[in-house]
Structures are given as C-alpha cells and as structure tokens.
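Project channel, design review

CF: Before we commit to the Streptomyces graminofaciens constructs, I'd like one complete example in the thread so the newer folks can see what an input/output pair looks like. Taking SalK.
RD: sounds good, go ahead.
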Amino acid sequence: MNSSLPERAGRHCYHALNPLHSAHYFSPDLGRELAAVGIEDADAAYFAVRSAAMGTVGAGVVTATFFNFRHELVAKHVPAVWETASPAVVLAARARVADATLRRLLGEEAVASDEMAEAAELALRASEACERTARPLYAAHADLPIPDAPHLALWHATTLLREHRGDGHLTVLLDAGLDPVEALVSHAATGKGTSPRWAMATRGWTQDDWEAGVVRLRERGLLDGEGELTEAGVALRREMEVRTDHLDRAPYEHLGTEGVARLTELATGFTAAALAAEAFPKGLIGKG
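CF: and here is what came back for SalK:
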C-alpha cells in the first residue's frame, strides 16, 4: 500500500499526541486515585491501569502485551491486584487521573477550548481505522466507551493510537530478534528511549541483566565497545521505525493529509504546554 501522506507524517502525529496519553503514568494524581481504591504500590498501579481494559488477566498476558517488563516483577502484582480493585474500579480511577492530569497540565481554558474539541474529533476519526487483529492492547481499549468530555475523548483516542502503534511495534521487535532487554538497551542507545536508570528501575531488570543485553548486542555488531549504536545498529533501529510506520499507517491514511497536519499542529501545542508544566520527570529520556 503506497501512502498518500508526506513521509513520516503519521509518526510525527503520533509523537505529538503520545505525551498527552503517557503523562498520566507520571502524574501525582495516579498515586492518589489508585491509593484511594486500595492500590498503593506504584508498579501495581501501572500494571493495573494499563491492563484493566483486558479484564482480570494474569501475569502472562501482561508480560506478553507489555513486552519489556521482567515477568517476575509483573507476577509480583498480577493477578493479585484484582483482589484489591476490579478492572471496572481501576478504569474509573484512571479516567479521574486523566481528567485531573490534563486540567492541571493544560489549564481549564485549554480543556474547554474549541481547539480541544477539534483535536478530539480528529483523533477519534483517525482511530476509526485502527485494526483489532493481532493487537490485543488496542483491541481491549477499543471496546471501552468514548468519554463525552472533549479532553477525555482526546485522551481516549490518543490511548487507542498509542496502543495500536505499540502492538504493531512488538511484531517488529520480534522479527528483528530483539528480546525485551535488548530492545530497551538499543532504544536507550539512540538517546530517544527511556534512560537505563529509569528502564531498570521501572521494568524490573538488574544491572547484570542490562550488561548481558549489551554483550548480546555487541556480539551481533549492533553496539560498539562504548555502548553506542554501530552503523548496523543505527540502520536496524531506523528500519524498525519504518516498518512500524507501515503497520501503523491505516489511521493516518484514513484521516488524510490535511487532517493529520492539523491534528499534529493542535497536539504539538497541547504537548508543549504539558512539557512546560513538567509533565515528565527529569532524566527519563536519554543514555544516562
């Protein structure tokens, strides 16, 4: 399928939108709302809010769909977390988190703006073309109702677009022969992925796990002795993004060139405001 969009237009739109979804994972509102329903551990809260759309799933399903978390960390909290709060209770709490987070980061004027309503309409239109087949996290979220409030409708649509691209990206990672640690290490080496410190702290991997992943990538010729990507490593990461774009093209083709450009413009403005409001912790992204 040949794309009628400018090169990387879909990817740029996705990257402009994604922070509007992912900011809630780092929001103080998440800890507060999940603690209110009995989930006080930060890891348990993350696993619960992201997997709740799939129902009372076990650790195996979460490890499979989240990909880069150590299974033992997942199993420490799942399925036990569902004994504390049901998926329905967690989903309601997550909606409150999204609402509070967006209002705090963007301000009431932006939340109530015509631009917010326009962005929500465009993002939802794009999500109409997302595909359920072999995309479990997207498919589960696609079964949830669309919120009435425009800022929550936009958040819902960004969630659909995020998980749709993410599910497709896992297919690319598997085809590239990268295991969870190797995927994290190689992405961190680009300078655009989660930093090693954050990756190990939140994904459950040890320093030994990380260093073993580095060794495996060196043996494949993808990392050099300084931990930097080789030419082959750069080429592989670039090709993986292109292939992910290809698997994720449908929603942006559906929206069309003008719609994608306008949604990117609107999302860029909202995301800039969120970043200025310190939506994400320092040191999250990078090689350090």
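RD: helpful, thanks. Residues 138 and 160 are 6 Å apart (CA to CA).
CF: The chain has a mean pLDDT of 97.
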